[in-house]
Amino acid sequence: MTASTVAHTTFVIERELPASPRHAFRFWSEPELKARWNDCHPDWTVLEDSFDFRVGGIEAKRWRMPDGTELAFRANYFDIAAGQRIIYGFEMSHAGKRISASLATIELLPEGAQTQMRFTEQLAFLGPADAMAARISGTGTGFDRLVEVVAREAASVH
To answer: 3-class SS at 28?
Structure first.
């Protein structure tokens, strides 16, 4: 891809969370719970970590990977309906260059005692074309960890 080329896509990832929407929401809104599933690279050095979960708030993370390259994530929260919905815009940078900008919507839909989580991302990808699939796949892998963490917590309560 050239610097002037951008690839656009919208994708949806759904997961069943073994918790009520109100409880599942906590894994997005509380820093300690979010870190349990979102801090997935123990060999990365955290250089910045701020979390201001409110409408107008900013979440920012920056890491140094083992090869010395930096990766950064910065999000702005636009809409939060506790236990129901989160809408935020975010950008990711690799080695100081922006590689993507996105609008994400998380919907937490009740299904009996569980929650159907629907994540929709509208992605403008500026990185190499072959890296876009890995970026989307990585998002799904993160949500697999979320399911595992919520399930472990649910099991420890019972």
So the answer is: helix
3-state secondary structure of 7: strand
Q: Which residues pair with 118 in a beta bridge?
A: 14, 107
Helix or strand holding residue 120 (H, E): strand 114-125
* Strand ordering across the sheet containing 114-125: 7-17, 114-125, 97-111, 85-94, 70-81, 58-64, 45-51
What is the rounded CA–CA span in Å between residue 88 and residue 2?
Answer: 27
Please give the pLDDT value at position 3: 56
Its sign, for the CA torsion 50, 123, 15, 137, is negative
Q: Taking a C-beta distance cutoff of 8 angstroms, is the pair 139, 121 a contact?
A: yes
The first and second tokens of residue 6, run together, are 């951008």
Q: What is the tens place of the pLDDT at every residue in 56-110?
A: 999 999 999 999 999 999 999 999 999 999 999 999 999 999 999 999 999 999 9
**Which one, of 110, 85, 122, lies nearest residue 17 by Cα?**
110
pLDDT digits (tens, 9 = 90+) for 114-146: 999 999 999 999 988 788 999 999 999 999 999
